[in-house]
Design a protein that fits this description.
alpha/beta
Length: about 300
């Protein structure tokens, strides 16, 4: 996921391999991590690839997931402003642990939160219960895969935030958009964001690498290297996260993967139109010379 985040993570430009030695207490060095072929090196930034299509492998994976697409992400304010103009109910698709759904409920919106991962939905519900009944009563959770989504309600605003559209296989995307459009109330909107790449740049440099420290508050130090590989033959990208967690008594090495799809903006616009949705607003934010983040707000035709 390429969502600019409101939280600043320390990002190190390195060219890593899977970990061969634990990083030092201060920071991992390129030597400690080892070389990895001709993988591209990116300059430090405050934006990192995300986990939108990877279910957490274990409870500790939540720390990494929150760091990459956490409760402080800058898009929450933008989407909340849209909800205030559209009204509720709100449909949060690919909600994860509730980074949007819970703040929306705190602002008084009824939210249906949809995700395929049961553990994430339980974290969302527990967060709502901790705040109190005034929030938890506004939250409804639904476990479903977006590629097979069947909705029951009607909504003023539907969200595919955190580049969730890129987690949906291209063959399933038109059906998902039609399903959403058919459940929008008159005047309702679909808002989604995605990362747009210059394909020529990807073909010239199909590998990118980040290293960063994962913010944790449980006494464990965790460093992660993210390796991103683009495949233009099937228009997909594959990210592998190699993490080292160092506690008082032991050091643990873990890896997890996510695969998502490269979104062609022209094809997506055509699919939205075929679903009966027109692009009312388009916002672009340049991330580097080859990549930009795109936000679309769409309204139902008629």
């Amino acid at each position: 996921m390429h969502t600019p985040s409101g939280m600043s993570l320390p990002v190190l430009p390195v060219v890593p391999a899977p970990f061969t030695a634990a990083p030092s207490a201060a920071h991992p060095s390129a030597g400690a991590l080892g070389p990895y072929g001709s993988t591209a090196v990116l300059p430090p930034s405050d934006f990192l690839p995300g986990l939108e299509s990877a279910a957490p492998a274990d409870e500790d994976a939540g720390w990494l997931q929150d760091a990459l697409l956490g409760p402080h992400s800058a898009d929450i304010v933008r989407y909340l402003g849209l909800a205030r103009s559209c009204g509720g109910p709100v449909l949060d698709l690919g909600c994860g642990a509730g980074r949007l759904a819970v703040p929306f409920a705190r602002q008084g919106f009824h939210v249906e939160a949809v995700d395929r991962d049961a553990a994430s939905l339980e974290r969302l519900r527990a967060w709502g219960r901790r705040i109190g009944p005034q929030v938890s009563r506004l939250l409804v959770t639904t476990r479903a895969d977006l590629a097979e989504l069947r909705l029951r309600g009607s909504y003023r605003l539907a969200l595919l935030a955190g580049t969730m559209i890129s987690a949906v296989p291209p063959h399933a995307r038109p059906g998902l958009l039609r399903e959403i459009a058919s459940h929008l109330e008159p005047g309702g909107a679909l808002a989604l964001d995605f990362t747009a790449h210059r394909l020529r740049g990807l073909s010239q440099d199909p590998r990118r690498t980040w290293a960063f420290q994962v913010p944790r508050f449980d006494g464990v130090e965790e460093w992660t290297v993210a390796r991103q590989v683009f495949d233009l033959d099937d228009m997909s990208e594959h990210i592998t996260y190699h993490s080292v967690r160092t506690g008082k008594l032991s050091t643990e090495r873990v890896a997890r993967d996510t695969r998502k799809w490269i979104v062609d903006p022209e094809r997506l616009t055509a699919e939205l139109h075929a679903a009966g949705l027109r692009v009312e607003r388009r916002r672009r934010h340049r991330l580097d010379e080859r990549t930009e983040s795109v936000l679309l707000v769409c309204r139902a035709d008629g």
